[in-house]
Structure formats: C-alpha cells, structure tokens
Amino acid sequence: MGADLLVFDEELTPGQIKNISGITELKVIDRNQLILDIFAGRANTTESRIQVELAQLRYIMPRLTEKSTAFSRLMGGIGGRGPGEQKLEVDRRRVRDRISFLERRLKQIRKVRDKKRQRRRASLIPIVSIVGYTNSGKSTLLNLLTKSKVEVEDKPFSTLNPTTRIMKYPERKKIILTDTVGFITHLPEVLLRAFMATLEELEDAHLLLHLVDISAPDFEDRIESVEGVINSLGLSHKKRLIVFNKIDKVDRTFIPNVERRYNAVSISASKKEGIDPLVAAVEEALEAGNNVISTAN
After folding, report:
1. Domain containing 31: what range?
2. Residue 110 falls inside a structural domain
C-alpha cells in the first residue's frame, strides 16, 4: 500500500515497537505517541509547552530501561517533537531532574491560577465552563457568547490553555465563561496528569456546558467519553447541561427526540442559531441552585 508509518491504537512496549518495526521495516508508533505529538504541535504558550513536555518525559521515562533502535522513532516527524530534540542517550537521572524542574514550574503556575480563582470566587459572579470532545466547537461558542476573538481552528486539541472571558451575549447579568482542553476517548494518563493544573479550573464552575458535535456519527460514544473524564476528575457532582452543536450539518428531524433523551438544547455556533434558548437554559440552570441537571444514562 506504500505506507511508511504504522500507528497502533493500543499502547505498545518498546520491545513490541522494535519487533514490529523489524518485521515490517516501517516506522512504528502507538496512539499515545501520536497524541503527544499533536499536543506538542498545538502548544504555543509557555504553560502548554511545559505541560506537554512533562507528559512526553513521563511517557519516555519507563521506556529508557530498554535500549532499542525503535526508541529513536520518538525523534523526528510524527511522534517526535519536544524532548525528542535532546540526545537519545539521555539517562534516567537527567530525565528525572527535568521532570522535577517542570513540576516546580507547574506548581508556580498553579499558585498564580489559585489567586485568580480566589478573586473570581470573591466576585460572586457565576462561572460556566465549556467542556466537550475535541473539535466540538467550544472556542467558537466562547467567541460568540463573549464577543471575543479567541483563535478557532478546525483541528483537534487547538485549545490547550483555559480561556476565561465575561459573557456579553446578550446584555444581561455577568457570567464568567471558561473554555478548556478538549477530551478524547481513553485520554492518556500522562496527559491527564500534566494538564491537571488546567483542568482544576473546572472545580470552581457552577455549571458545565457539555458541548457535543451532533454531526459526529459516534456522538453518543463521545458523550460517554467526556462524562467518564469528568467523573475521573471527581466532578460528577457538578451540574451539567448538554448542548448539541453543529445542527446545521445534520437532518434535524431527529433532533427533538435526542434533546428529550439528554435533556439538552441544540445550537449551531457557527450559524448563530439557538443561542437565545441556550442562554436562557444556562440562566435557568444557574438559578436552580444545587439541583443537578440530569443527563441520560
């Protein structure tokens, strides 16, 4: 087929990479390496670069024990940004030192975030966080509701740092809106750990807007994946409102049924459809106090 790269959905050991590469004479990477590489390509701030490099080093660390030419496949091209620029023979001590240094940097960032969060809590302004599967349109919705110009790209993981803005659409009482990193099925543990400082923003949210790309054939599986990440973060008690996005891309006849099933609202952020009912639903949810908005089982 002319392929020069094999990507495995399951995590591979260095020995497996070596053996498969030897048999096929192709470059071999696993899903985690690919995801780490995509994150590295999207990291354009100091904080996101620290988090991605930390995740990469944690991924590499247990693989340093087995010397293999396959390990060199972490360097260059797909699966090879960030710490791959260092010498391949970097020893475990240097990696541990680098990890410790990056962890200290993240702690400093966390302290700054904590101070900002304390100020937000003191303001008593309700906080709404947009969560969802990657590329579901979170940044587009944030821009629409806050009249901001956050960069929007039609690609996975385009947002790695949380973005916080004041909701300005429509001109009603103030609401703080935050956008976070997109989730995926089986989010690698090393990435989840590295982005914990970012995901801590969700702890202060009074409401989670779970944005779903309803045009995705597997949107139901994506809902379950995001709910799984939310639960793993200890946020299952948070109020949640499911919002189906991109209704302009689907046959709308089935939308009323799926809305009832998930107790959801539907919008098209790019076409600015359904925004008024969404804002009304957000305000109703915030006024409901501690009554958790239910989602379908």
Report:
1. 5-98
2. no
**Whether residue 133 sits in one domain with residue 58:** no
Q: Report CA-CA distances (Å) from 124 to 204, 205, 217.
A: 11, 12, 40
Same domain for 129 and 72: no
pLDDT by residue (tens digit) across 50-105? 888 888 888 877 776 554 444 444 444 445 554 544 444 556 778 888 999 998 98
- 119 lies in a domain? no
What CA–CA distance (Å, rounded) separates 36 from 55? 8
The total of other beta-carbon atoms located within 10 Å of residue 10's CB is 9
Instruction: Tell me: pLDDT of 282 over 70.
Output: yes
188 DSSP 8-state letter: -
- Identify how many contiguous H helices and E strands the chain contains and give both numbers: 10, 8
Give exposure, 75-106, as e/b (b: 16+ Cβ within 10 Å).
eeeebbbbbbeeeeeeeeeebeebbeebeebb
Report d(CA 82, CA 146) in Å as an integer: 33
Residues 148 and 244 in one domain: yes
Helix (H) / strand (E) element for 39: namely: helix 31-42
Q: Secondary structure of the chain: what % helix, strand, coil (to 5)?
A: 50, 15, 35
| 171 pLDDT higher than 80 | no
Strands 176-179 and 127-132: parallel
* Residue 292 in tokens: 């958790």
Looking at per-residue confidence, does 240 or 37 come out higher?
240
220 contacts: CB under 8 Å, gap ≥ 6: none
Q: Which residue has the tokens 């470059």?
A: 27
In 153-257, at which residue ranges do the beta strands (DSSP E only) sit?
163-166, 176-179, 207-213, 240-245
